[in-house]
Design a protein that fits this description.
By secondary structure, the chain is an alpha/beta fold. The chain has 10 helices and 10 strands. The strands form 2 sheets. Strands 1-2-3-4-5-7-10 form a 7-stranded mixed sheet, sandwiched between helices. It has a 3-stranded mixed sheet with strand order 6-8-9. A hairpin with a 2-residue loop joins strand 2 and strand 3. Helix 1 packs across helix 3. The radius of gyration is 19 Å and the shape is globular.
């Protein structure tokens, strides 16, 4: 990737911005980019720091694994330095626990902002929270060695970092249930065939493939992409007739804009 001065570089997250393209990189390959509350706060901060010029965000990771998921230190009595352990959180009241999980989820929500198109470039293991982080993005480019797995259920937990909605939307309820309940690996071939990934490439071509996709997305006018994304995102919740109405309204806005005519 292009070497740029980072706008953010802390807690295993680096953000760089090159005009209309931002790159968020997970930078702790020694721990297979395992995740922690500090990393989640850094991811949320990266989203807040994006300048208005950014249209496409590429999420990538250093090392052989995209992310091995939650750092198991979270389940120890000690937890992370300066953080409540998950055991302590479980002993708290429901309102505090809900608020804490909601804060963690903020690292996973901004990737679907209407004014951005986000691309996850995923290699090696993307387990649990790693899988859910890849699912947070609009598009996924995967290396041929990718292995997705949702292991939370196997640990007696549930996926709670916003991954269940996009997973069901992409692969359907039955396959999503089977993937989550068994915790099995999903390979690159299956990822592409089921719509979980857009394309699979050799691992040494992953960054180039993500960069090429970003460039293709930038070729279209920004407002047209924003309107199209909104149409497609809302289609599943609309009837056929409601979608027709939404298409007409969106097209009217575009035509007026192109003609320089006010609403």
């Amino acid at each position: 990737m292009v070497s740029l001065d980072p706008a953010l570089d802390k807690d295993g997250v680096r953000l760089t911005v090159d005009d209309a393209v931002a790159t968020v990189t997970l930078t702790n390959p020694a721990k297979r980019n395992a995740q922690s509350p500090a990393l989640w706060r850094a991811l949320a901060e990266a989203g807040r720091l994006l300048p208005g010029s950014v249209r496409v965000v590429v999420l990538r990771a250093e090392g052989k694994s995209f992310s091995a998921g939650l750092d198991r230190q979270a389940f120890t009595p000690e937890g992370f330095d300066g953080e409540p352990s998950f055991i302590d959180l479980a002993r708290g009241d429901d309102a505090d626990l809900d608020a804490t999980i909601a804060e963690y989820q903020e690292a996973f929500t901004w990737w679907r902002r209407s004014d951005l198109v986000t691309i996850a470039a995923v290699q090696g293991h993307a387990i649990g929270a790693g899988f859910q982080l890849a699912l947070a993005c609009d598009l996924r480019v995967v290396a041929d060695d990718v292995q997705f797995a949702m292991r939370e259920t196997s640990l007696g937990l549930v996926p709670d970092l916003t991954g269940t909605h996009p997973l069901v939307s992409l692969v359907g309820y039955a396959r999503a249930l089977e993937i989550c309940a068994t915790g099995r690996f999903v390979t690159a071939e299956e990822s592409v065939s089921t719509g979980l990934a857009n394309i699979a490439v050799p691992v040494d071509q992953l960054d180039d493939a993500a960069r090429d996709l970003a460039a293709a997305l930038l070729a279209a006018p920004r407002d047209a992409v924003i309107e199209t994304k909104a149409l497609l995102r809302g289609a599943a919740d609309r009837t056929y007739e409601e979608q027709r109405v939404a298409e007409r309204a969106a097209q009217a806005r575009r035509l007026r804009d192109l003609a320089g005519v006010g609403e």
